[in-house]
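User: Please predict structures.

Assistant: First:
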Amino acid sequence: MKKLTYLVASLLTTATVGMTFTGCIDNDEPYGIEQLRGAKAELLKSKKALIEADAQYKLALAEAEKVKAAAEAAKFDAERAKTEAEIAEIRQRMDDAARIAEQTLQNLKVAYEQALLAYEKERLELSQQQQTILDGFYRKYFTALNNYNEKYMEYVRAQKDLVANALDPDGIAYDAKKRVEDAVANAQKALDDAQANIEDYNEQLADAKTWKPSELGAKLTAYQDQVEENTEKMKLIDLTIAENNNESEEGKALVAAKKALDALYNEEVEIPAYTFNADGAITIPGLTEPEEVIGEGWSYTWNSQYGYHGYNDAFNRLGNFKNSIRRYVLDDNDVEWTKAEINNLEAEKKEKTAEFDNLFAGWKMFADAYNVGAAPKYDAIIGYDELKKAVDAYNAQVPATQAAKDAYYAAQKAAQEAWDAYNEKNNLEGDAWSDYYEAVNAANEAYNKAVEAANNELDKTITALNNAVVKAQQEKNAADSKYMIAQGLADKYDDNDLKEAALAALKVAEDAAKALETAEKARDEQAPKAQAKAEKANDLAAATRDNAITDAEKARKLAINDAPQIADPLLDAANAADNKVNEAQDAYNEAWNELSELVRVWDNETQSYTGVYGAIDNQVEEINKEYQYEEEWYDGENWHTYTWMPASDYSLFYQFENEVNGSQWDAEVAIPECSVADVCAYSSSNMKYNIIALSNKIYGSYYYDKNDDDILGIPSAQLIPLTKDDIDKMLAKYGVDEINYPNSYNYYFGLFGITLYYDNRIEVANAYITNKPAIEAAFEDVQTQIDNLVASREELSDKIDEAGKAVEAAQEAVDELNADSWAEYYELQRQNDVADKMIIAISAAAEATGVAQTEQWTQETIDAAIENIEQSIKDEEESIPDLEEALARAKYILDQYEKGLISSAELAALDVEEAKLAMDADKEKLDAAKARLDAAIKSVENAE
């Protein structure tokens, strides 16, 4: 069997928004799958096709979301659009999104037809029963997929119409009345079809109740034949409709009307070239040179309004140019200049100049102190003299404090040595007792070792003597036993050999008895001697121990008698050393307090700190007061104001203070000296930050050095005061038009740029007052160019509207010509839906009852099919209330619209909602059909 490329159908899911290949399907084996066992390799394509289909599908999902986003954004933009250019751009944006979606659907329809063709060809290789099994699954899936694709495009078109109505409520792009009338007709048809389906289902149900098992296969074939016959009729109707659309008088008129409309869409409209101030009559600074706004050869068509040098480009160029020169020439409120306004500008400039001069001084202070490429110059910072004075005062006190500290620790060391000498002699009695106990312990230990050695030697001797007796006794017992056995044999048998053996055994037994006697005698003689030797050794050890203890007692008594005469003088010396320590500590504490106050102390009278810390605090407070400024920031919703102050950091001082405090009670650490660099609140990194921040404020953050050079991470321009020439060179380098220089000054170059902006505004204002007639004429000339451009598009738009109406009229004539054909087509389609339901009812019944061959079908299969038909009737009947409600809703909306109570915009919004609901409903049906198809595929794939 050929491979059945059913997976080509999965490619169609690229149009089914929201559906994915999850593989989560039921494990029940569909009816007839056992007929396909062994055909796995022939029936299924590789998993790669599934993966590719899934990827294509997700891509289409993303495209659909883009269409939705485009519609929402376009509607919002349309509500606030003020110009023709804005409206045209929004319309084009939505048209492009819808066109992409429509093209996607067309591509998918081709894939749909190819999938159907592929399946029809390859199913011929299947058996009749195999075709029966799979056809139902595929047909339901193809039908659901096609229905969903149509609903998807209706949803896209509804969004497009919503935007079209917002852009042009009175135009022809959205025919509100026709839409609501069509909605009523469609709702009526849906209700009529459902009622007709119920009637047909009941007829089929009545027939099914008469079925016999032997007839069931023929009934299934008849339904399949009906579907094929109706499908062929529908193809013929398609041909008739196509012929009407192209060959009839009405169709030819429609083709001609569409051709005429298409020609207008592509009709080229020339845009006249335009150069501003071509005659040089305007002498305002920045506008003295002629400027080409629209070049030669610009043109557009309706379909290419947004192309390069097209309508949108020209309209924006003219509009932006007009706005830019008006903003440039007129004041910030777009009104004519007056002497009063110029006076206000001069006053504002004076204020900004004063602010610039002050912050420039702070910027220069930090720039000088930073001293790029060398060590910082702290003497350039305000408050340096006070800080240096405080540091010098501290350093002047360090030697005296260090000397007092050294004297204290020297006295402390001497006292410790005196006490060590006293403690060494003060414990002589204790030492005597310790020596005594140590000697007694040593004597007892020596005694115990001697006794243990003597006893071990005695045990060893006694054990050896006893072992010898035991061994002799064992040998004697063995010899006696052997003799008794030999003598018994000799007595029993009169044999010379036995008798000789008995005599030999007797000799051995007698020798053994002698050996035992000898061993016992040795034990009895040597054991008492060994005992006496051990006792003698024990007595000697005891005497040695007693002598040693007596000697230790004599030494202890002598040492205790001599101790007081040695220790008392040493105690007096130690107490005297302690007095000297206390005196030195008092002197050190006094000196330290003086030093500590020079580091930091709170003055209750002035309510401030003094010392080095106080000088730092005063320096920071003065600099903050002098160089702070107000800054604004935006959180995305609101503007906020905060006060910027130069960055400072007390961490160096705290580190120094910790080092000083850490040296107070550490004899090995010298009291540190201090320098301004050791404690200044403005480290190099803080200076760098303040240079950049102040530079951003006075010069802005937009510029770069002429060589784009960086010095230690700071653009070198931030260390070099800028001039107007510097800024102009930068703007020219980056392609900024001269007319935009003032705005660039104002927005990008800080306070300095703002003063330049005021200079320009004052100069321009004076020039405007002098040259007002020429300038106003130039404005009117630009507006004329804009008006002419808009008029050319409106003229083309009117032509297109008329041609569109002609297309609509021709389309209505063709629709009327095809009305009966479409009615017949839809009825055949409805009949096929009923027949498909019957095919599924029978196939599902066979699956449920677990039989594959038609000849195996039983009454149980028929009963299950009847239940399925009854369920179809129930489902259709349950849909009637919703369909009736939908019809009533459509009629109500039509009535409200005819009475003027619902606007076309509200109708367009309702259409989007209705289309979305319809699309979601068909999505559920598609998911169900896909799940059943997946279940069949899964079972076949798992078949062995």
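Second:
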Amino acid sequence: MCKYLSFLFLLAFSFHANAQSYTLKGKVLNINTQLPLESATVYITTVKDSTILEYTLTDKNGDFNFAVKKNDKPVFLKVTYVGFETFTEEQKDLTANKDFSNIYLAESTNTLNEVVVKGEAPPIRVKNDTIEYNAALFKVRPDSNVETLLKQLPGLEVDSDGKITANGKEVTQVLVNGKPFFDRDGAMALKNLPAEIINKIQVSDFKTKKEEYSKDQAASDNASINLTIDEEKNKGYFGKFLGGYGTDDRYESSFIVNYFNNNRKISLLGSSNNINAQGFSQDEVFDNMGGGRNSRGSTVNRSQANGITTSNLLGLNYSDELFKDFEVNANYNYTDTHTENINKSNSTNFRPDGNFNTVSESITDNRNNSNKANVELEYKISPSIRLFVAPRFSTSTSESNPQSNSTTTAEDGTLTNDAYSKSENRNESNSFSNSINFNKTFEKRARNLSFVFNNSNNNSNSNNFNQSETNYYITDRQVIRDQNIKNNSISDSYSAEIEYTEPVTDSIRFKIGMEYNFQNNINDNKTYDDIGNDVYTNLNEEQTTYLTSKQNSIAPKAGIRFQKNKFTFDVNSTTSIVQYDNHSFYKGETIDLNKKYVLPFGSAQIRYRIDRSKFFTARYNYSQSLPSASELLPIENVSNTLNTVTGNPNLNPTETHSANINYRNFDFRTRSGYNLYLNSNFYNNDVITTSIYDEDNNRRTSYENISGTYSISAGASWNKSIKQEGNLLRYGIALNANHSFSKGFTNGVLYGAKAIGISPRVYLNYDYGEFFTIAPSYNFSYNETNYDISTLNARSNVVHRLNLQTTSYWPANWIWGNDFGYTYNSINQSFYLWNTSLSYTFLNKAFVAKVKVYDLLNQNQSITRSISTTSVSDNENTVLRRYAMFSLTYKIQNFAGKAPGKNRNTGRGERPEGFGGERRGGPMD
């Protein structure tokens, strides 16, 4: 390990000291007001072909200070700022440090959005709260995707899990020309759109449609990325087709075809494989192969997924401007999956009078197919009126045939019970949801009226056949079931909100509103026993229930915002008046629980922008939530022969106090940044389960309110990038920690559990031109739970993960990639996972032949530990093991009649027109 870290530090040091450089500094001022211009872009280009050598942004005092590599040829110093004329001054060479003193910019006679001469755009430009990157000036390898391009941008980070952060903010939305590309999380766009078609990358605060239309400040602390397509590449088609076959009958196939014609964009994609690739997310080195770098963009690491999945997918995306100011975006997805898994579990359940252990095994065979269609309609009725409508439809059918067995023993090894079951299950569900957003702005700045309507309607039907046998050895009894269980579940919800905002002064605005919510849930469960010969007509009243739950609420709300210069303060208050009606029919008896609640909600937020790169945010939120119908209604659920569950009608609403603090800073001058955060949640009347065990370790469960529980998390991260010519070094560290206190209630004994966790991470990425990349990383996590009663011992788990990713692009047309990972888990798991791939591009880069091997050492495993207040469980699942595969990829591309294989003109070969070499004079000259 010491040698490994020494190598990383040596690499960073040698890179930093690779070439002699000189320092350029100065101050940028408004020529009229003499005030400094913050976030002006200062950059150096060659006179010969306008290649950008280095760049930076000015700080809040207008100062800039950056290092530039020695250059014996003439260069331009250029300074741009939105709304001002570009300053240009020629330098004969860069062979010494230089202080430019004061540089004065004059306001442009053009509009604020058209201040840059055509053909000359800086690498980074700040427009109000939006940071815009000129994609053409950030060099990436030919055929790179958008994700590779994002990694080159200062302030943007893409981690091994696919999470994107922009200047410390998590990116939760990625758009293409302002519209979703299949989905808003951007996974499809980042992996499948080529970098060469992108013109600009715009990073801004994430806003809801209501905030966007009302031009209100974003309430969340997340970010949004908008990818704008180069005009020359916004008319044409491109795509690729892939097919592969390997050992153990492993296969993969996929295609994506895109047709762009200005506003009209049509994309069609499909995929079929049996290598656990359930989405459509192709890596340039490993295609759909899971593990390593290709775990990005997935909700789970494919190498650690539960089971082996065969999946088929077909998708269509369409966006267009049907007529002036009326835009449509629609997508459809069909998925079909088949997953087989064997799960082995070893659980210790805590009892004050002695723990017991359960060993179980389950075999599952699940099939699922679904159809999803989403439509977004946006109409700009007038300059002041906007309408947005987004209906969503989905249907799904699932079938499963699980089998399971379990054995439970007391602490002294005495067998208390065992159970066996097998089932045949089928479920069909349909859902429809819709969102309507109407917004009206007025002549008076910040005056706004908005109306939002949402609905969600779901209907699910299941038909299950279950056979089980449970043996209780202490009391010497047996329960055998052979049943048909039919369930119909209906869930409907509607909400309507109207809000009016009135500016009282330039700094103060007041808003009032009203929200109405209606929810209705019906669950009709019927269980029939077998009367012989698989005839299920005998209704089992103990396992037949009919439940309804209805909520009607009206919530008046009010808020005030104070906004002055860099400071924003918000206070919002809501009082929800709820009529909560729950009904059940069980064993011929009707139970009605009808209650009325008055629930207050409140929030406060302080946001302070210290300067363009430094932000401080503090938030507090108070909320209340109601128990569910199953937690309230005092009826017995005996569907599980080892656990009978009964509701508690005396439960109270849960109160939650949430507070968080965040501070982030990214300095474009040094290309380094850090982020600090602290989150906390405190609960009163939290709902927990209470369990009473009999001598057979058969459990009776109910619910209770408890107070005094909490959770706290804190973390920090720091990253830096160093770029010299075509080489790029990025490295960073992160530390996350959490602490929580929860309570358990077992056999009448209430006890507490304090859990702590810590997870540091260190990573480095080095791109050596277009020849190779190397990316080592190390993760460590430690979790421990301590209990406040002496009969329960502390439980802990330690995990080390070491990963090394290498990719070689030499010699030409060859790519050799490796993902090598080592995992150590304190629960007797230690293994290596090595994936490798070798590809060759031929026939004018239209074809790619590839050989790849997954889990070369054949050591992949999946063992996890979960620790709760009442138990600790170790689980092992089926995982994908070693296979080799050969694949062939064919690429097509034609933009505006241009021949395939030609890359875009980045503008580096032409000197921009309209620029001279004079310094604009100022009062100090």
